[in-house]
Specification:
Structural class of chain B: alpha/beta
Strand order of the largest sheet of chain A: 2-1-3
Number of helices of chain B: 5
Radius of gyration of chain A: 16 Å
Number of strands of chain A: 3
Radius of gyration of chain B: 16 Å
Distance between the termini of chain B: 20 Å
Largest interface: A-B, 9 and 9 residues
Largest sheet of chain B: 9 strands, mixed
Largest sheet of chain A: 3 strands, antiparallel
Shape of chain A: elongated
Strand content of chain B: 25-35%
Strand order of the largest sheet of chain B: 2-1-3-4-11-10-9-6-7
Order of helices and strands of chain A: EHEHE
Helix content of chain A: 25-40%
Structural class of chain A: alpha+beta
Number of strands of chain B: 11
Oligomer: heterodimer
Order of helices and strands of chain B: EHEEHEHEEEEHEEEH
Distance between the termini of chain A: 6 Å
Chain lengths: 82, 236
């Protein structure tokens, strides 16, 4: 069994309205030294196989076809045996 | 026009600010002014309304960013000095984020956005917002995705001990049970106040139940209760 930890981020060239709105909140709070706030997603799940290459393949398909939108997002993940 | 003045705050993303303005000013005839969130002047309002909507797109937690809008320092100051503040839906969430009311909002238990009329039992009739109501149960609309009020047991005990639970979701006959709870809120809570009872937050929308053309005017009872009490204060 493996645990997959996936991070999904908007591509750097694509506007991130959530990041912008939250950063505006930071300025209102009086925090002046933060910039470039980007909000992504962290997703964690178990993969029920002992075959690392099969697990890797399934995670990749899951990320490409469902968890991320490849038109505007990039993903990265780790697989740890548990 | 009445001597009592309402101020309705517009945050970026508010979409019920004009509903509140229209209901209070045009339908009920109480003097009302819209206040921009970047202002700090409450324009001599006797009551501040934090309206519903999706302030700052709800991008972090609902109401979390709005709490830091410049106007909120004035609203907090006003509220802590005893000024009357009514937070409706997202406005209620902003009051929680600002620490003016205790607890948090979670996503609806159904994970669905709910938009329908519900019934509210008035639990505490001894507040300026509720003491002139001539009904035990009122009908108001709700429209929210994150209205599942939650507080830990200690906070809930304090809310009960200090009579801060003002409204609960109920049947039209006032029966309180989980089947009449639209969002999973703890103890069917729909609205609470602070200890002093000058700050009220509720998820349902009284401003959308004022105009007779909508077929439901129970929301107007909350505004008129408040106004009658405030006028009494002035006259005394």
């Amino acid at each position: 069994m493996f645990i997959a930890k996936v991070i999904i981020k908007r591509r750097p060239t694509i506007l991130d309205p959530a990041g912008k709105a939250v950063e505006q909140g930071a300025k209102l709070l009086g925090i002046s030294n933060v910039s470039g706030t980007r909000i992504g997603k962290y997703i964690e799940f178990i993969v029920n196989t002992d075959d690392k290459s099969a697990a890797d393949n399934e995670v990749k398909i899951y990320c490409e076809k469902l968890l991320s939108n490849p038109i505007m997002e990039d993903f990265e993940y780790t697989l740890e045996e548990i | 026009m009445s001597k009592i003045k309402f101020g309705v705050v517009t945050f970026p993303g508010s979409n019920c600010d004009y509903d509140a303005f229209y209901a209070i000013n045009n339908v009920l005839g109480y003097k009302t002014e819209l206040i921009w969130h970047k202002d700090t002047d409450l324009k001599n309002s006797d009551v501040i309304v934090l309206p519903g909507g999706f302030s700052y797109g709800d991008y972090l937690r609902t109401g979390a960013i709005a709490r830091f809008s410049p106007i909120m320092d004035s609203v907090i100051d006003f509220a802590l000095k005893g000024g009357f503040v009514l937070g409706i839906c997202n406005g209620f969430q902003i009051l929680l984020e600002a620490g003016l009311l205790p607890g948090v909002m979670l996503k609806n238990e159904s994970l669905k956005f709910v938009c329908k009329n519900i019934y509210l039992k008035i639990i505490n009739r001894n507040t300026f917002f509720t003491n002139k109501l001539n009904k035990d149960v009122i009908k108001l609309p709700i429209k929210h995705g994150e209205g599942n009020y939650f507080a830990d047991e200690k906070t809930l005990n304090e809310l009960e001990e200090n009579d801060q639970i003002i409204f609960k979701y109920a049947s039209k006959y006032g029966e309180i049970s989980a089947k009449y709870n639209p969002n999973g809120s703890v103890k069917n809570i729909a609205g609470i106040s602070n200890r002093e009872k000058n700050i009220l937050g509720l998820m349902p929308h009284p401003e959308n139940a004022c105009d007779p053309i909508l077929g439901n005017t129970d929301g107007s009872l909350i505004f008129s209760s408040l106004v009658k009490n405030l006028l009494n204060l002035i006259e005394v």
